[in-house]
User: What shape does this take?
Amino acid sequence: MTDQHCPGFESNKTLKEVKVRCPECGKEWEIFSDEADKKTKCAACGAVVDPKTCAVK
Ligand SMILES: [Zn+2]
Assistant: This one.
């Protein structure tokens, strides 16, 4: 048996946290960078937020 490690680990270690702010209600939260390519939903008001345009620096 070969020495295996978790198959998801190699790709996960490059993840960064991206902070986004809801343009509707101003709520801020963090997502992982692999989720920044797709739209996310504000937990507070339900607005659909595009992380690429709503990222907080
Ligand atoms: Zn919101």
User: Anything to note?
Assistant: Residues 22, 24-25, 27, 42, 44-45, 47 surround zinc ion (CB under 6 Å). The chain has two helices and four strands.
